[in-house]
Amino acid sequence: MNLENLGARVRKTRLENGMTQEELAEKADISLNFMSLIENGRNMSVQTLVNIAEGLGVSVQYLLYDKMDLEEDVISQQILQDISSLSENEKIYFLNMIKQYKLLKH
After folding, report:
1. Element (H, E) at 67
2. Mean pLDDT of all residues in the chain?
3. Could you tell me the CATH number of the domain that includes residue 38?
4. 77 and 41 in one domain?
5. Rounded CA gap, 90 and 68, in Å?
6. N or C: more exposed end of the chain, with fewer CB within 10 A?
7. What H or E segment, with its residue span, contains residue 50?
8. Is there a single domain that holds both residue 12 and residue 64?
């Protein structure tokens, strides 16, 4: 894993989201100085990486490998966020709808 590339992806994604280093540092629960070091290729803990990804609204995989399309990743994150706010009955209802859709699609 190239830490400079990881830091560059963090910076690029942060800027695309219109966030300052200070805003992301706060969301990731780290100091502004450490956020700057990360964007410049400094190593970090797995938990910090997870916190940064969550703060940016992207997956850890996107930051590590840059293989997922950012738009698809943002959509997936939004779907997960929307589903988490539903009641258990609503979740079951939408799960059944998705299963039916997949059956009809094939």
Report:
1. none
2. 89
3. 1.10.260.40
4. no
5. 29
6. C
7. helix 46-56
8. yes
Contact assessment for residue 62 and residue 54, using Cβ atoms and an 8 Å cutoff: no
The one-letter amino acid code at 74 reads V
Cα–Cα distance between 51 and 46 in angstroms, integer? 9
Token digits for 22? Answer: 């200070």
Q: How many helices (H) and strands (E) does the chain have?
A: 7, 0
Inform me whether the pLDDT recorded for 68 exceeds 60.
no
pTM exceeding 0.70: no
The amino acid that residue 24 corresponds to is L
d(CA 82, CA 26): 23
Domain span at residue 5 reads 1-68
- Identify whether the C-beta of residue 13 lies closer than 8 Å to the C-beta of residue 70: yes
At 60, the amino acid letter reads V
SS3 96: helix
